[in-house]
Specification:
116 residues; five-stranded mixed β-sheet; 3 helices; 5 strands; globular
Length: 116
């Protein structure tokens, strides 16, 4: 069973994984700018290597730079137009990608969609 708990703000948090939403054409969702900064300058090259563009169903797990707040950053595609169903589906793909971990921080709850 998945358990949800509220945590502190991203700037104060640390952990194993931070999962952030990305829309199509690598348009940042909430928290993705912070994650991109933590991964570093090679982010675009890593996305190119993984063929990650933010399409619905894509998940890119990338290591944070030295001394970043999280060990791994999960960029999760929401497609070209996010709604409550695409956010739900993306959360499922994320869950499968990080299923071995006990806790994952995310900003999915900050995506502005009707009916969420």
């Amino acid at each position: 069973m998945i358990e949800f708990t509220a945590g502190s703000g991203l700037e104060e948090s640390r952990g194993a994984v931070l999962a952030v939403p990305v829309l199509d054409d690598r348009t940042w969702g909430p928290g993705a700018d912070l994650a991109a900064t933590a991964v570093g300058e090679a982010l675009d090259a890593q996305f190119d290597r993984l063929d990650f563009s933010g399409k619905l169903g894509e998940v890119a797990l990338l290591q944070g730079a030295a001394r970043s707040a999280y060990d791994t950053y999960a960029f999760v595609g929401l497609g070209d137009e996010a709604d409550s169903e695409t956010v739900r589906q993306a959360a499922g793909w994320l869950a499968r990608a990080v299923s071995r971990l006990e806790a994952v921080a995310t900003t999915f709850h900050l995506v502005d969609v009707e009916g969420a």
